[in-house]
Write a structure and sequence with these properties.
The complex is a heterodimer of chains A (260) and B (204). Chain A is of the alpha+beta class and 260 residues long. Chain A is 35% helix and 24% strand. Chain A is globular and about 55 Å long. Chain B contains four helices and twelve strands, in the order ββββββααββββααββ. Chain B is globular. The chains are: A alpha+beta (260), B alpha+beta (204). At the A-B interface, strand 3 and helix 2 of A face helix 1 of B.
Chain lengths: 260, 204
């Protein structure tokens, strides 16, 4: 029955759904997982890298993590080609705001701009929606560190911790039980918010679950951390292979000893 | 008074041995009335690239912001720092786009290439570049500055000697120009970093 109402973006179904948008969201559920966790003094994002061929020679530093401006980075789940368009849009918007006001763009405004752009493809023109979901990590002086998730419909929401991409429901349920109670190495805040080190381990744990046992390794995972330096400027860091290996090992050891 | 001399100003950039220096006065005037003595005309675009802009003050400020915008996007997309040469080409294009309604500036691009060698360019207001291996000048006291630089500059100066030479050339030049001076700032750029010093200049 949905057949009649699902080939055009600009048509609601009788149940009040936009099928094209929902199909776009489905496309993302087959893509490499991304986890984002808001930590006490920064943000952690972890991505599953899907290496399709050993012969690939990548041109960019990452196919999952992209810097948008001095104080914001995003990770991508979905069609990379679609993502490239949106990332460029985000970069332009942030740079134009900075040019106009000589101030960094507030995070929510940046996210809303990208989302409004995506929304247009669900209402006008007969063009298909973008098959991308993003996790935006950023900092502004008004609200500090923030983590946002957006999907092809153009909806966005702010999160303390979330997962997008393949097996995101499994990831989310793990976060639900583990995010609040983290108190690793005395780095917890009053609200139980983990510190960066704890957040990194939690992110790896979530990826382990969503990749369901295909084995954590440095060439399959990419870890990103955003913090502030002493001059209140954002530091964007993609962890080196050695640093990732160390965290994977720590998680494995904890899991092994937890079983005792 | 021409539109290029409305606000006044003087900038020199010189090359040394694997280093460059760029210096400017800090006067902002409205014709003959001095309005500020801390007006920035030399801008650090990156640790190895400086942009000096002489001419109409509003265009100096606007162009700096515009080029910062363009450079930020370049570095995000290319994931690498912008070379002085690419920056100079970009600046030239930005200026020529306004061929029939130009920015009233005389820019200087001074930086170090990847291999540490100096890079100096000055341009006219519509982007015609002039590469130099010794020094470049811009502003309202260019005749004075050319005279000083031609005499004082020599090849292979190390950073301290370059600082002295640059400072003396600038100070002597602006002292003979009514609408330049009122303070000066000098930046010396080497592979190890930037040394910025304010000069004690005549406040007249």
């Amino acid at each position: 029955m949905a057949r009649r109402y699902d080939s055009s973006t600009t048509t609601f179904s009788p149940e009040g759904r936009l099928h094209q948008v929902e199909y776009a969201i489905e496309a993302i559920n087959n893509a490499g997982t991304c986890v984002g966790i808001l930590a006490k003094d920064g943000i952690v994002m972890a991505c599953e890298k899907r290496v399709t061929s050993g012969l690939l020679a990548p041109a960019k530093t990452s196919e999952k993590t992209y810097k948008l401006c001095q104080h914001a980075t995003c990770t991508v789940a979905g069609l990379t080609a679609d993502a490239n368009i949106l990332i460029d849009q985000a970069r332009l918007r942030a740079a134009r705001y900075q040019y106009q006001y000589q101030e960094p763009i507030p995070m929510e405004q940046l996210v809303e701009h990208v989302c409004n752009y995506k929304q247009a493809y669900t209402q006008y023109g007969g063009l298909r929606p973008f098959g991308v979901a993003f996790l935006f990590a950023g900092y502004d002086v008004t609200h500090g560190f923030q983590l946002y998730q957006s999907d092809p419909s153009g909806n966005y929401s702010g999160w303390k911790a979330t997962v997008i991409g393949a097996n995101n429901q499994a990831g989310k349920s793990l976060l639900k039980s583990e995010y609040k109670d983290e108190e690793a190495e005395g780095e917890a805040d009053e609200g139980g918010i983990p510190g960066i080190a704890a957040a990194l381990k939690l992110a790896v744990k979530v990826l382990n679950k969503t990749m369901d046992g295909t084995g954590a390794s440095t060439d399959k995972m990419e870890l990103f951390v955003m913090t502030l330096d002493d001059t209140k400027q954002c530091v964007h860091k993609i962890l080196t292979d050695d640093e990732v290996k160390k965290i994977i090992k720590e998680v494995e050891d904890e899991a092994a000893s937890a079983g005792d | 008074m021409s539109i290029f001399t409305y606000n006044g100003g003087a900038i020199i950039a010189m090359s040394g041995k694997n280093c460059i220096g760029i210096a400017s006065d800090t006067r902002l005037g409205i014709q003959f009335q001095t309005v500020a003595c801390d007006f920035q005309k030399v801008f650090k675009m990156s640790s190895k690239l400086f942009l000096g802009l002489a001419g109409l003050a509003t265009d100096v400020q606007t162009l700096e912001k515009l080029l910062q915008f363009r450079m930020n996007l370049y570095e995000l997309r290319e994931e690498r720092p912008m070379s002085p040469k690419a920056f100079a080409e970009l600046l030239s294009n930005v200026l020529y786009e306004k061929r029939f309604g130009s920015y009233f500036v005389e820019p200087i691009v001074a930086g170090l290439n990847d291999d540490g060698s100096p890079f100096l360019v000055n341009m006219d207001c519509i982007g015609a570049p002039c590469l130099a291996k010794d020094y470049v000048v811009a502003g309202t006291a260019t005749a004075n500055m050319h005279g000083m630089c031609e005499t004082l500059w020599k090849e292979g100066m190390e950073s301290e000697e370059l600082f002295e030479t640059l400072s003396q050339a600038l100070l002597a030049s602006v002292d003979r120009d009514a609408i330049s001076g009122w303070g000066a700032v000098v930046h010396i750029v080497t592979k190890d970093g930037v040394m910025t010093r304010e000069l004690k200049a005549r406040q007249d």
